[in-house]
Amino acid sequence: MDLPSDSHLLLETAATELSLAIGQLARRLRIEVNPGELSWSQNAALARLEKAGAMTTADLARSEFVKPQSMGTTLADLEQAGLVQRRPHPTDGRQVLFALTDAGIAARRKRSLARREWLLAAMERLDPADRQTLLAAAALIKQLAES
Amino acid sequence: MDLPSDSHLLLETAATELSLAIGQLARRLRIEVNPGELSWSQNAALARLEKAGAMTTADLARSEFVKPQSMGTTLADLEQAGLVQRRPHPTDGRQVLFALTDAGIAARRKRSLARREWLLAAMERLDPADRQTLLAAAALIKQLAES
DNA sequence: TATTGTTATACTCTATAACTATA
DNA sequence: TATAGTTATAGAGTATAACAATA
After folding, report:
1. Are A141 and B23 within 8 A, CB to CB?
2. Which nucleotides of C are covered by protein (CB under 7 A)?
């Protein structure tokens, strides 16, 4: 077993700082919601359905790191808002497939969520190199989450 | 008013992707907690006090983007765990200053939080250039949150 | 009067447990 | 038996409202 190298100490620092930064921006973004807007979880589920097409509750839950019961609640809210619709699985009577409705697609197209607008305005104040770093980081952060 | 330029569309994409990525990693990290460990909010408050020294409830609330009442709850939990202690403000009888106790300092030194360990392990699987990108991004994300 | 902090209460999101239906 | 989903209940974190003490 080696003593920690300088690069390992740097990595520990990076992990700590990234964890704190993620938490801080998550809390900052959380307060940017206008009345009647989709919650962060609802928006994440909608975005996932847009990218991946129809999915079951269980698969959506795995993708977003929540329990199936929690995703069930989120999907019930989206269904009641008319943004997703359910249909039976063609071969497995237990499963239910969820897909975006036309209204759901329109909701994804509409570029007016307060959280997104706030983040966009904040990023506009950065210089191009920093924006590029954040775009690259977004892909890496997703990769980390799914690893 | 100009039509959106290519670079503006790129920026919109970056904002959307970053927002989704932050949410996804926040949920992924949230499930990595061992029984008895500090919550993410408690850890953030502790880290803030370590960096900035003694602070009032209101200042801590502003730093972490929650209401003073919410930070009051977090600080009460930390106080009960013996990790922070309160003392009166020297000149303003309304304010209360919170600072780390020896146990709080020790808790910050201890490098064993499940969330941090999970993130560290995930980052170890990245190549050095990607780690560097994430370290730079952590600083930018903090800057965004505070902008 | 304005501000800091506390107490009481409620809301959102997610979790665990128990249940039904299907495989 | 095992799995997908539902229903009921509970917990964590944060919010709003009402209040007390101090500036």
Report:
1. no
2. 3-8, 12-18, 21-23
Distances (CA, A) of B60 to A28, A88, B64, B75, B81: 14, 50, 6, 10, 18
Structure letter (DSSP) for residue A35: T
In tens, the pLDDT along B17-61 reads: 999 999 999 999 999 998 889 999 999 999 999 999 999 999 999
β-strand partners of A96: A88
Q: Any residues with CB less than 8 A from the CB of B79 and at least 6 apart, and which?
A: B85, B86, B98
Closest residue of chain B to A9, computed from CA coordinates: B120
Residues B141, A24: C-beta atoms closer than 8 Å: yes
State pLDDT tens for residues A21-53.
999 999 999 999 888 899 999 999 999 999 999
Q: Is the CB of B101 under 7 A from strand D?
A: no
Residue type, A97: L
How does pLDDT run across B88-134, given as a tens digit for each residue?
Answer: 999 999 999 999 999 999 999 887 789 999 999 999 999 999 999 99
> Residue closest to C20, CA→C1'?
A94
Helix, strand, coil tally for chain B in percent (to 5): 65, 10, 25
Decide if B15 and A66 are in contact by the 8 Å CB cutoff: no
**Opening angle at CA A9, ends A142 and B105, nearest 5:** 100
